[in-house]
Automatic annotation (TrEMBL):
Coiled-coil segments: none
Domain Pyridine nucleotide-disulphide oxidoreductase dimerisation: 338-447
Cofactor(s) in the UniProt record: FAD
Keyword Oxidoreductase part of the UniProt annotation: yes
PANTHER family recorded: GLUTATHIONE REDUCTASE
Keyword annotations from UniProtKB, A to Z: Disulfide bond, FAD, Flavoprotein, Oxidoreductase, Redox-active center
Example of a GO MF term: glutathione-disulfide reductase (NADPH) activity
EC numbers, comma separated: 1.8.1.7
Top EC group: oxidoreductase
Organism whose genome encodes this protein: Roseomonas elaeocarpi
Gene field: gorA
The name this protein goes by in its record: Glutathione-disulfide reductase
Amino acid sequence: MADYDFDLFVIGGGSAGVRCARISAGHGAKVGIAEERFWGGTCVNVGCVPKKIMVQAAEYGGWADDAPAFGWDIEKRGHDWNVLRQARDGEVARLSGIYRRLLEGAGVTVFEARATFIDAHTLDVGGQRVTAANIVIAVGGKPVRPDIPGVDCGMISDDLFTLEKRPERIVVVGGGYIGVEFACLLHALGSEVTLVYRQKLPLRGFDLELREGLAEALTAQGILLHPGEDLESLGSAGEDGRVVTLKSGQILETEAVMLALGRVPHTEGLGLEKAGIEVDRKGAVLVDEDQATSQKHVFAIGDVTDRVNLTPMATNLGHALADTLFGNKPRHASYENVPKAVFSSPPIGSVGMTEDEADARGKPAEVFVNRFTPMRHAITKRDGRRSVMKVIVDCETRVILGMHMLGEDAPEMMQGFAVAVVNGLTKEQLDRTIGIHPTAAEEFVTLRSPARRVGDPQAAEEDEAA
Ligand SMILES: Cc1cc2nc3c(=O)[nH]c(=O)nc-3n(C[C@H](O)[C@H](O)[C@H](O)COP(=O)(O)OP(=O)(O)OC[C@H]3O[C@@H](n4cnc5c(N)ncnc54)[C@H](O)[C@@H]3O)c2cc1C
Ligand SMILES: NC(=O)c1ccc[n+]([C@@H]2O[C@H](COP(=O)([O-])OP(=O)(O)OC[C@H]3O[C@@H](n4cnc5c(N)ncnc54)[C@H](O)[C@@H]3O)[C@@H](O)[C@H]2O)c1
């Protein structure tokens, strides 16, 4: 290793890269890292953190509306976007600074520059030649901008964090995580929101019953839904207006457009071909189970591999790789049963198989479901606040295959239940647990009769015969 400048060089100072660099240095490796834009990457600067602060701001609007039902003499007079911007941007700057200081404190050499490959062991880092025995690609992803006329009339999620004024009317295109979260938070802050998406329901990949419940909740709170629609073109109208043309021919006039159409790996121009590193059609770096690329000393972690594109997955991958390479503790981060949350209103928390996935196994599973109005909203009578809880159980082993919730506090609740599900919790163990009363969470430990059975080959044959 003495022939190289570094034992490890990390490209990208986001969730995956910072963790890998910091832990590797802690294990004694000589580490360098390059970041071209912002320490902490997407999550800290234009992702989870500023988004969650905006979600929290939005929640106060609903609580202010609810308060009179509990006797509070409160009048909601409006929301000051600039106060929120300053609070959010201040917290983001604070966290980003912490990320940089953590690296320096661990003894990592930091470069505020773009890094690209010259060959499989050599990088150009802001004009400087740097060599490394091992290289980690942790460059993340970037928002998709579709190839349609007038695409520049639309904002991407990064732009929402620099807006000086909240748009009064906005069309959000895309029914994935970002589209749904921003539609909800902008609506709650006072914007008139239209959500356009391709499928019949938003959030493909989540449990169908939760998706149905969420679509009902979105409509109940006044978000205008356009399901089954695709984008044809964007254009301007007058000084500040925007026109969205859908493939069905429908035209929507609005003040602003947000495109939330997915993210692609940030590998363009990285020089991967010079290092002999293979990518897939979307530009995602191909890796084996050790996160090694087609060059065994070059690794890729986080969103750049386009597998589970979530921050805790990225940090886990970074930590596991550092432990494996320099900590004498070889291990893999598991892609199985990764808990997920959508910070919609109400939010979603989910771990394990959906009902459709359990059904498709062809092995019998029981599905327990509960729908209820949380106690708070029995008083407030606020629309669109019904909760849905679901537990899916393998009939033979009694192991819980999936747990899902749409409802207030679902992400907080699901983190705890996920610990148990990941460790093989059975339905009987869940039932043995005494509830905490009065909470919504206790509904998970009091589900007694299954709503239905799925995945039963015999039942499917009987259905067909009938
Ligand atoms: C709006 C939004 C909300 C999100 N909300 C959540 C959430 O609530 N929960 C959750 O778990 N996940 C969320 N995510 C996803 C999460 O942000 C990502 O999964 C996570 O940031 C991936 O980490 P990463 O290290 O792989 O990539 P990134 O965080 O994107 O970091 C990559 C870094 O590499 C830098 N870089 C790129 N190319 C180079 C180069 N050639 N040289 C030097 N530096 C380079 C980039 O500037 C960037 O800082 C959200 C994402 C978005 C966009
Ligand atoms: N709460 C969280 O954990 C969270 C929040 C935000 C983002 N994220 C991560 O970031 C990723 C990116 O988020 P995202 O919402 O951009 O992507 P996504 O993949 O979740 O959703 C993109 C949506 O856009 C649709 N789409 C694509 N092209 C379209 C077109 N031309 N017209 C209409 N619809 C089109 C897709 O069908 C899909 O439903 C997520 O997949 C997730 O991994 C996580």
